[in-house]
């Protein structure tokens, strides 16, 4: 794997001219749809990730035994959410030795149906060689790569239908999220928040990979000088969608640089925010900023979840996000207005919003606490590249400098 700092000129011809993907087809896809399939990253557009299946219960879960094991040969952190369509499970591996695999397997037996090995070109990463999965629709498997490509593979045999470059990987951009699909579009966001980059969300035509719209997540009017050009606010979690209101709703990361606000004076919109765009045009509809401005790395890192709130006899369509700051923020998804903020779900110190100093400030929660994307279970790759889960560590205070 090639990792270099921003602006590095160490690219080699071998890396720049990556080999084309290799593909192996092992078996035919099974026929017939299954109502228990998992069709989207969040299972449904509201991102609730709730399965209605009842076969496994709290009473019998302890008696489960393995019936299938898929060995990928890729030993690194697995963060993929498998997508299951008509009995076929589609999943991705992390990047190892500048290669990533996209697989289709029989969801019941684990039989490998096809496998594509994608060879990466130039890439720079801040936060691990991970990939969080695919989006399947319109007969294709859509996946993003650390070297900033959006691929469309034929769902039947894995051959490449189209390959679009999202952004230049030279400056530190990378793609790690599972794309979202809606109404003939594939929607992606940007990773790379530790570099001086400008975050964005973009939509592509699912037929040919051409860009339909792009929304940049730093507002020049709210950043000092030209700091908005590298002001962060990355979008690396899969958005939710409200089809009725026509809204794409997601959260944004911290402004850059994360702990030094002196070079980016202002509110630094739209960092640390819940944001809604018109899903068809990318036009900003509303936002709610959770931390303003952020000099503690308290960014919004969890997927936005949609649900209804019952208040004073009225039903309010709502959106919520649990941030690293330690509260769940619930907003009206028609307007972005805050409905309420939860009680703290982590320990909070009185100086949690103190200005960082050279000597250091002890605070709770810290930059690694609150609600992290990986909280609950840490997914580890075994020696064979299989997936194992262990309990996450307890929260600890962080020292911010």
How large is the radius of gyration?
Answer: 21 Å
Q: Which term fits the overall shape?
A: globular
How many domains, in number, for the residues?
1
CATH uppermost class = Mainly Beta
CATH topology: Methanol Dehydrogenase, Chain A
Largest sheet: 5 strands, antiparallel
Which consecutive residue ranges, at least 5 long each, have pLDDT under 50? Answer: 1-16, 375-401
Helix content: under 10%
Q: How many E strands? A: 25
Widest beta sheet: strand line-up? 1-5-4-3-2
Q: Specify the structural class.
A: mainly beta
User: What is the average per-residue confidence, as pLDDT, rounded to a whole number?
Assistant: 86
Give the DSSP E fraction (strand runs of 2 or more residues). 25-35%
In sequence order, what are the helices and strands, one letter per element?
HEEEEEEEEEEEEEEEEEEEEEEEEE
- Judging by the overall fold, what is the CATH architecture? 8 Propeller
Distance between the termini: 31 Å
The number of distinct helices, counting runs of at least 4 residues, comes to 1
CATH superfamily: Quinoprotein alcohol dehydrogenase-like superfamily
